[in-house]
Amino acid sequence: MWLLVDNQTFPQPPEVAPLAPGLRSETFPASLDSDGKTVDAKTAAFARTAEQGFYEPWFTDEQINQVGRILVKDEQNLTAVYVDRDAASAEPWGNALAQVGFDADHPVGTFVGYDKTLNAGGPAGPLPARLITVVTVNPSFRRRGILKHMMTSSLARAVEDGMAVAALTVSEGGIYGRFGFGVATREANIRVDLGEGQGQGFALRSKPAGRVISADPVKLDDVINTSFEAFHARTRGSIGRQQTYQMAATARWNSEDPAAWNRKLRAAVHVREDGTIGGYVTFKHEGWDTEPSTIRIGDLIAADDQSHLALWDYIAGLDIVRRATMRTAPVVDPLQSALVNPRSYKVTALADLLWVRILDVVKALEARAWTADGSFRLELEDPLGITGGSFTVRVDDGAATVTRDAAGDASGTPAGAPAANTTPAAPAREATPDLPTLQLSVETLGSLYLGDFSVRTLHAAGRLKDTTAADVERIAKILDLPTVPFCATHF
């Protein structure tokens, strides 16, 4: 919904940054040709450019069509920035570009947006989220406003579409904070020693119920859907998945060759005592030249903790295997505490995964989980002018009601947003002068949103502006969450 305050509507689309002269942008849906099997030329050129931007091999037509069909299935919208060849011809480098550069239909900037859901832990369930991915800028055309243009135009569309949050994953950590994205979940890379010969052996304190059976990956479509649906519903921080996960878990997608099957893939499924499916795991052997003999887990999705442990117990029981590795594991993993010897479980790396950008404070906070009832005032700075201002947050029976304070709007907020579906303004802040106040940037709110970072930690880091220690303690009791979030999905 749009909120009307002092004849302005909130949230507001940001001002779209211009491109440098000689560049133009276009946004279009990923599309197939009339045969329904091959991607159209524009989508193909976009996909090739994006793969090159991430240093992937030169893809064949068959591989590009496979990638493009997935873009279409996920209803992904592509934003491309192109060089105006007429303008380029007047530049000293124009002739060289025409002679040795890529064709004119190959963009110099790529950007993808599409919609899934984010589990923020609230009672209403996951909320829609605009996901951002495949962001590349040709190194020959940096410092021409390409990234800023693509990002601000994408966020403007997300606001106009009524999205409460946007989310992305990053290759470089120092880029996206300036656009209001904050680190919201982290993941662990782990190594689990399985064999007796390692001196760290694998043994669970108690045997999980049910049975794990080896599975044919190509038959897992229904299991994948139901297992992830249950996992997504119970896991704060989880993001809905794109089609590549479905195809990878059923061996129809090979990251080394998208047009080929992954014939190394193996799978297993946990069957509960009542006969229902509790989850699945996919994995492959790293090869006999690996020492010790190692299994790499590709995906492990469980609807409950017992299934999580049972699938690990199956991996540990595989013949002639002494170690298992996994790239995407929760930072707090029940497996480690379930082991007789917790030292057999080693975290080899920690990394940020999900970055969240709040677009609508009211919608986003009302969809969130809360620890305790109470109230506080939120003073939010948003350099893009989307959702800054003063808000009152009241939590009752675990559900939040958020209202914008008419007297506390941020200055410099762009005007001109449509005024449809407006809501009356909230009372001015003077009506509740005793509330503790949290002052922060929208980037910092993104880091607090899912509960991976605490109010106390971010206060100690100097991220809460002019928030007193007393207010920190009062707000932390309401806002901080008892468990860490987990996102098992890269995009």
From TrEMBL:
Biased composition, class Low complexity, residue ranges = 408-434
BP term (GO), one: aminoglycoside antibiotic catabolic process
Origin organism of this chain?
Nesterenkonia sandarakina
Q: Which Pfam families match?
A: Acetyltransf_17, Acetyltransf_9, SCP2_2
Alphabetically ordered keywords of this record: Transferase
Q: What is this protein called?
A: Putative acetyltransferase
Keyword Nucleus in annotation: no
- Please name the GO terms that the record assigns under molecular function: aminoglycoside N-acetyltransferase activity
Tell me the ranges covered by the Eis-like acetyltransferase domain, including all copies: 252-358
| Residues annotated as domain Enhanced intracellular survival protein | 361-487
Annotated spans, Disordered: 405-434
Q: Does the keyword Acetylation apply?
A: no
